[in-house]
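**Protein record**
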Amino acid sequence: MAFNHLRAGVHDALTPLSVTPVTHSVPMAKNHRSDRPQAHAASRPSPGTVLDRLASVPSRAARITHTEHLPPRAGRHAVWPDRIRSEVIAAVQACGIEHPWAHQALAAEHALDGDSVVVATGTASGKSLAYLLPVLSTLLDGAEAPNGRGTTALYLAPTKALAADQCRSVKELSQSLGTSVRPAVYDGDTPFEEREWIRQYANYVLTNPDMLHRGILPSHPRWSSFLKSLRYVVIDECHTYRGVFGSHVAQVLRRLRRLCARYGSSPVFLLASATAAEPAVAARRLTGLPVVEVADDASPRGELVFALWEPPLTELQGEKGAPVRRTATAETADLLTDLTVQGVRSVAFVRSRRGAELISVIAQERLAEVDRSLARRVAAYRGGYLPEERRALERALHSGELLGLAATTALELGVDVSGLDAVVIAGYPGTRASLWQQAGRAGRSGQGALAVLVARDDPLDTFLVHHPEALFDQPVESTVLDPDNPYVLAPHLCAAAAELPLTEEDLDLFGPACADVLPQLEAAKLLRRRTKAWHWTRRERAADLTDIRGAGGRPVQVVEAGTGRLLGTVDAGAAHSTVHEGAVHLHQGRTYLVRALDLEDSVALVEQADPPYSTVARDTTAISVLETDTEIPWGAGRLCYGSVEVTNQVVSYLRRRLITGEVLGETKLDLPPRTLRTRAVWWTVTEDQLDEARITPEILGGSLHAAEHASIGMLPLFATCDRWDIGGVSVPLHPDTLLPTVFVYDGHPGGAGFAERAFHTARAWLTATREAIASCECDSGCPSCIQSPKCGNGNDPLHKRGAVRLLTALLRGAPEEKPAGDAEEKPEGAPAGDPERDG
């Protein structure tokens, strides 16, 4: 229990800090149309034919709002780099690869020259081989060295599944290389009896950032031989390291570099991503090192037909009588069913585990009505399955035994499922980067492929299916991360000091924010300075101060009430909204109801159940400005960016019917408020602008509220975030600005870079927001434009036309050029300064 207070002490120690602004990379103008795959196999129907068959069902053709044809492209070979050992070349050729693609050879040459390099080429372009060529060749060189262990390499993947998949590939490729290459997976699933062998003998260790943070770095004396010989660090799918998670990983990598230097090594970093904007900038921010960019994709690609699909309106009514569209889940289940009947090998990507299971069950039931044998050829794939279960599903899909799979993003990353004909994406996945990752799962053997994006009833999805240029004519988003965030930096300075006393010379490595953070940690008695170094003097493990995938704080344990069995944990920051009393909680395919949430002991008691609904928490939020870093005149109004304090309270939850999304009821909750110091972008309007927009006091609150909801829904198009990563507040008269104000803020302590990205793209972001509201076919507002699933005030008041006029007046005063770089309101009639919140 004492350590929980210690963990909180890191946060408390930083409370007075002025947060350092976030930096970000600038998006690269990349034309995705030229990056998609080559001609389909003759035995398979063309993607256009498959789409025509899907659209031939009555009334379906009208649901296709746009079709994009991305043409095939021929490949460009190169010669094998002369420094790659002949045994490695022979092993690769034995796998059927006669010559490397030009980008593979170029990346290998940079690596052998000692340059850190990022390979940012399309899905299935052979990025793995680009880094394996120098790694395997160097491991062979090291095996001949007289010093025993020889050279070592470390591979980092964001998921266990990807590391396991890569390990199998390396073992297959290196079979002919004998014992010179000894790959091994080292993660939380690795049996303890194998771990000592890996530390002593493995020379290619595959793991994840979490294990590096909690397991390897704190135990570095036991890894000294490995670290001393470390030549390469491979960081796969590096675009996933963004936001707060990416900021944590950036500091973990700096801790790794510091320990390597202590043991006399200086590893070269090899990064790979199919979807990264200005990849060298993002890679340099992540690693802290200069990185060479290889982004000219020389691999062949087949045709990709990409359809945008909008489900039809139903006769159901949502909040305030708003029209409701058919759910993306139901629509995707229909498409997966029809693709399976056609014999088209397909994956449907779904955002939630429950959604994946639901789509597979619906498809199986409908297929059984056609042919009982077809029902067995569709399954679900998601996190929570045992590794052997996932591998069996991958093999069955690859072989054709399975024709359809409903999958979460567990299958999005580089796991090889080549041979797919089609991908259906149930709802925009949040970023263009993820969209292209998922679409790239099909056509991985060079054949043509079909991708279908099915829109959810959501402002961003609705905007995208009617504005295809926002997907097909824009680069992927910038990778936003901020290693200097003091709430991220502080626990890693503690962890670094616990690994080795922290010296003045180390501070440049960890960044300029150290100068402000270290005195705070000293004052909190978390670090102690002796002579020229800072020491960790506690008994507890400093690495346990933070969960690199969470927002900090003591995790809430989810316990089965009847058995006392620990099912898992939930991040402290998410507990109020996800495991409140009455919440539906999913765990490994089973559904539970939360019976009680004990905040003092951080325990949620659950019982297994099968309710016909899901739950969505609602909350209210007040916000105050701590410091304005930057402000720009927008006509009479202003656009600002800075630090804020957000006070949030979960007040109720909605029960929504699973298939239709229909609201079944709302239940009040009594949970304490929480405060968050973070970063925000906000804009103000003046009385003159309100007069110009014909915004009367009666509709001001609803106009601001609607603009806030829609702007939050649209921000993921401009920053690598999900709408659940951000929040907003709108107030007709805010006490700090003394004007009508709309705030959008990062939902993480110290900020995650999303609000700053919004500030730098404000003109485009708010223009798209206005367009999304104005083009929606509803009369007075619906989930496709201004209603929010998180609104703490029941989506009331909202004024759709007022929001359009308000944004028009605001944008009229926006600067002609973008600035350098790239809420909710109160209810009508409520007193000023009584805001509510959304996200």
Q: What stands out?
A: Residues 243-263 form the longest helix (21 residues).
